[in-house]
Design goal:
It comes from Arthrobacter woluwensis. This is DNA-binding transcriptional regulator, FadR family. This protein is mainly α. It has two domains: about 60 residues, Winged helix-like DNA-binding domain superfamily/Winged helix DNA-binding domain (Arc Repressor Mutant, subunit A, Orthogonal Bundle), CATH 1.10.10; about 120 residues, GntR ligand-binding domain-like (Four Helix Bundle (Hemerythrin (Met), subunit A)). The longest helix has 25 residues.
Length: about 230
């Protein structure tokens, strides 16, 4: 299927861009003690619209100790991680384990491993058209509800399309089977608004990494979805 390209909308305020940077740091894309990417590198990943808030965001992260200044050359490096108030540390898994917790854990572990590697491959193989399809699905989740597969409903359609974007049919078949198994052990209770928002944010960052052709980042960020 083909969709017209819908450009990403810029953040409404610098706090959103700050959360995005913090999410990438928390996910280990930029490890503790490593250099923060240059402005040009950040522009290639997030787009020029986000960089309007760079100075304000960096100052805020610096005050919190998430970014520190390296004394010898003044470069910004990644400082402490894992702040208690960081939204990226919230659980984003949809649904909860049912009575057979051990089975749910094993299936979810396998699903996470497959999704992580699929995101890595998608960042190197996905065409621009596929990236646009992923973006359209993320921006219009109701489309996923109409996707008829034997394994997954609309709420998991984005993750499945990431696996499809990896270009490996066997991975898709395995993922579908895992989703069937996972569905039998999941208790779908009401999802709190905060968790839904966090899941959407996590998916957006995976898509950002895939579109920016950042395979390592895509894998690390995908690992935070489930």
């Amino acid at each position: 299927m083909r969709f017209e390209h819908t450009p990403q909308q810029p953040s409404s305020d610098p706090r959103d861009f700050g959360r995005r940077l913090e999410h990438w740091i928390e996910s280990g894309v930029w490890p503790e003690g490593g250099l923060l990417p240059t402005r040009d590198e950040l522009t290639r990943i997030f787009g020029s619209a986000e960089l309007e808030y760079t100075r304000e965001v960096i100052d805020g992260l610096h005050r919190r100790g998430i970014l520190i200044i390296r004394p010898e050359d003044g470069r910004l490096v990644i400082g402490v991680k894992g702040g208690a108030l960081n939204s990226s540390t919230l659980e984003t898994t949809e649904g909860n384990p049912g009575p057979d917790y051990e089975r749910w854990r094993l299936v979810n572990e396998a699903r996470k491993a497959l999704l992580t590697q699929a995101a890595r491959l998608a960042a190197t193989r996905a065409s621009d058209d596929i990236v646009m399809e992923l973006r359209h699905l993320l921006e219009h989740p109701e489309i996923g509800e109409s996707v008829e597969t034997a394994a997954t409903g609309g709420e998991d359609a984005f993750e499945r399309e990431v696996v499809v974007a990896a270009g490996n049919d066997l991975m898709v078949r395995i993922y579908d089977r895992l989703m069937i198994l996972e569905a039998t052990t999941r208790v779908n209770e009401g999802i709190e608004a905060a968790r839904t928002e966090n899941l959407t944010r996590a998916r957006r960052e995976v898509l950002t990494a895939i579109a920016a052709r950042q395979p390592t980042a895509a894998a690390l960020l995908a690992d935070r979805i489930l």
